[in-house]
Amino acid sequence: MSERYYVDVAEPPATNTLLILSLEEARHLVRVMRRKAGDRITLFNGRGLEFESEIIATKRDRVEVRILGILSEEGPVAVPLTLAVALPKGDRQKWMVEKLTELSVSRIIPLSTRYSQYGADEAVLVRLRRQAVEAAKQCGRRRLPEMAAEQTFESLLRLTGHEAGHGEEMAPLRLFAHPVRDGDVGQRFLKHYLKHCLDPDFFVRTTPAQRKVVV
Q1: How many domains, in total, are found in the chain?
Q2: Which of 43, 106, 124, 197 is the most buried (most CB within 10 A)?
Q3: In 3-state terms, what secondary structure has residue 181?
Q4: What is the mean pLDDT of the chain?
Q5: Which residue ranges of the chain lie beneath pLDDT 50?
């Protein structure tokens, strides 16, 4: 995979548009890759687009580039997937973001649980976004997962499809599949689900030992 650099632009820039790379990308390009004015590089915006560009000027922590044209476009995934997960600690957090980016997860929601060890304030979300950028640069993805605000389990169940990142046309969550090993766990979960979901249609409880689904 050829080297690529991330630029945070929402709309496709016109040809000959001048852009300034972020501090992190500029430092990597100048200090590590030893790029200089006149070199051509590939940019991606994390929203599906790749651009060809030319370096106009470089300083120690600043790089200015000129857009030459769009190289390719990656459309949205057919089935957008939002994953809510309690953040692990240490290197496992970085590994998780890398793999979810590679798997084209559309949105990651940090989940606050009773035994969570790490919260997700703005500084944490910034770090997670940076890890997703690095993963996308390595694996060739053109789209980045959105890092959403931290949610509790109760607030997560109240999210509509639009709030979860899947578009306005989706209805609120109504179906939840949950594997259980005994009736007590399933009953407690069912009560919690019915309490915090608005007008659920039905609840699916799977029993792995019996390999059947109870509705």
Answers
A1: 3
A2: 43
A3: coil
A4: 78
A5: 1, 167-178, 197-215
